[in-house]
Amino acid sequence: MRIAVVHRERCHSRKCGTECISYCPRVRTGDETVVLGEDGRAEISEELCVGCGICIKKCPFDAIDIVSLPEELERPTHRYGQNGFALYGLPIPVEGKVTGLLGPNGIGKSTSVKVLSGALRPNLGVFDHEVEWSEVLKGFAGTELFDYLSRVSAGRMKVAVKPQYIDQIPKVFSGTVRELLEKTDERGALGGYLEALGLSSLADRTIGTLSGGELQRVAIAACLAREADFYFLDECTPFLDVYQRMVVARLVRELASDRPIVIVEHDLAILDMLADTVHVGYGTPAVFGVVTRPKGVRVGINQYLEGFLAEENVRFRDHSVVFEKRAHTKGSDRQTLFTFPKMAKTFPAFRLDVLGGEVRRGEVLGVVGANGIGKSTFARLLAGAETPDGGPVESPIRISYKPQYLKGDTSVPVEFLLRGATTRFDSSQFQHEILEPLSLGPLLQSPVDTLSGGELQRVAIAACLARDADLYILDEPSAHLDVEQRVRVTRVIRRHAEGREAGIMVIDHDIYLIDMASERILVFEGEPGLSGTAVGPFGMRDGMNRFLGNLGITFRRDQTGRPRINKPGSYLDREQKSSGEYYYYTGDEEQSSAR
Ligand code: ADP
Ligand code: ADP
Ligand code: MG
User: Fold this and answer.
1) What's the pTM value of the predicted model, to 2 decimals?
2) In this predicted model, what pLDDT tens digit does every residue of 96-118 receive, in sequence order?
3) What is the percent of the chain where pLDDT is above 90?
């Protein structure tokens, strides 16, 4: 079984020689395997296509994908027309449970949710007639989803959604935080949420003036405060620090006690503690996606990291992602790149103290600490963009900085933007080490202001690394990236540091990413919004202990070596806190029966 997808936005038959038709061997023998449809775009017959792949290579706009489907797939749940994206399976919302949806971008997570929320009536891959709900329900007869979809079809399913891209909110709402939240507060829960999410002091601010992290928390509060039969939260963690992520996880779990909640989450440490079960999504982005049957959260995440789904017998990655059980000490033979002095910076309402330290050539330095604790200020001090209290830093170094909040408000194409950042764009090194692993090829001609959040993030990372600099600082590169992309970004960063003998600082709140990327850690501690102190860099073990000790969070290891957040107050949590081992705990590994 084969699926042929024509990416509509990239198919321009008037600008090409319709190579997909003229080179198709089947067309040459007289079959109508590829034709131009009424809208002037290529139409490929999946019955006639033999999958030779010639049209894919000949299309000048990369508009065609033809992919073999895993054998055991039956009919799709929904297909966006002939040669459109096809979704197989659906997540199953369960009362009293948090169901996670784990998988790459572009494999139909949002489409699934549109179906579950009644916004999209699925067509079961049928286009020759209008598919009515009765036919859909017949297709789901005898499945766990039958009752649920019956309610959806009767219009009796009220859904509350936290959208993925929160930056859209200010475009449709211009009032204050309080005005927005009062509208959505159907459960009378507003006061509690404002308090728990640290939003009380923002209540009278207008939505348009909020930072990304503030907007994220407002959007979460707005969703959770609704009275609904089903809640869906699409990526809660971007722009939130670890403490805030834990608070959100607790609020979601509390609400889930008597209603179904489905979440999409790419921060796996948080997903692990938040979800009861996960459906893994796999497939080829923008071509087809399969949502698996539910798996226990520990098993599902481990299979995902391994790149192999045992029940489905599907391998989707050729290597597995593993975590070091012991802190590594690789950096000791590295040379010093630069030393930063003890310094301070005082603003009217905030003071940053930097204790001083060094950055080494070729190392990736993880930077951890709450939002509003001075991380960006520190970066600006190093770059000479901000002057420390006593006078300027002696020799500011060249810094290439990727900010946390990306603008993307230019209409120039991605390639133009990247060529402006480097003269090495055409070098094979740039192609192999930056463009390919970040999958930027298909985006090069796209105007920057049409990119999705995840696409813009990858472009911004590429642009940052493209520039010549002594120190690269990436502020929250994980935001809006799926797990696959996080893993690839980690590899790109490490290689770049080694290859250029540069230093790279990665500021992030995804503990797994920090663990995978870093050799040492710089820790920011203090009172967010009031004062911060930059201590370190430390080795991984001391740094993690210091940072997690401040947060009061401990991790245990499961038998694959993956760190899992301990339940606060549990036996291990107490034991590890008393022995001071917050992350690299070497006690008994978790039993396979747990969860
Ligand atoms: P995810 O949420 O996993 O990122 P989506 O469900 O948003 O994935 O989209 C999966 C694919 O479906 C997209 O890559 C896109 O090609 C296609 N798609 C989404 N919406 C539509 C639509 N309204 N019409 C046609 N194709 C669509
Ligand atoms: P982080 O990057 O850790 O989130 P920042 O360095 O951006 O934190 O900010 C730390 C604190 O310093 C915040 O309370 C912020 O409001 C304040 N701050 C940052 N820049 C300035 C400035 N130019 N003037 C006054 N206050 C500032
Ligand atoms: Mg989506």
Assistant:
1) 0.90
2) 999 999 998 889 988 998 999 88
3) 68
Pick the ligand that lies closest to the CA of residue 84. Answer: 1
Cα separation, 491 vs 517, whole angstroms? 8
CA-nearest residue, atom 19 of ligand 2: 377
**In terms of domains, do 508 and 582 share one?**
no
Specify the number of domains making up the chain.
Answer: 4
Are both 580 and 479 inside the same structural domain? no
pLDDT in tens, 137-172: 999 999 999 999 999 999 888 899 998 888 888 888
Residue 108 Cβ inside 6 Å of ligand 1? The answer reads yes
Give φ, ψ of 205 to 5 degrees: -75, 150
Q: Do residues 344 and 486 share a domain?
A: yes
Distance in Å, CA 95 to ligand 2 centroid:
42
pLDDT digits (tens, 9 = 90+) for 344-384: 999 999 999 999 999 999 999 999 999 999 998 998 888 78
Ligand nearest to the CA of 213: 2
Average model confidence (pLDDT) across the chain: 90
* Angle ∠(104,479,331) on CA atoms, nearest 5: 100
Q: For residue 56, is pLDDT > 50?
A: yes
Q: With 0-12 CB in 10 A as exposed, 13-18 as middle and 19+ as buried, what is 348?
A: exposed
Is 79 a domain residue? Answer: no
- Return the biggest CA–CA distance within the chain: 81
Q: Is the peptide bond before 396 cis (omega within 30 degrees of 0)?
A: no
Contact 553, 242 (CB under 8 A): yes
- pLDDT score for 594: 41
| Distance separating alpha carbons of residues 539 and 331, to the nearest angstrom | 9
Pull the structure tokens for residue 151. Answer: 């309610």
Compute, in angstroms, the gap from residue 366 CA to the centroid of ligand 2: 20
In a domain, 368, yes or no: yes
Which of 343, 345, 346, 347 for mutating ligand 2's site (highest number of atoms within 8 Å of CB)? Answer: 347
Burial of 314 (0-12, 13-18, 19+ CB in 10 A): middle
Per the structure, the complete domain to which residue 41 belongs is given by: 2-68
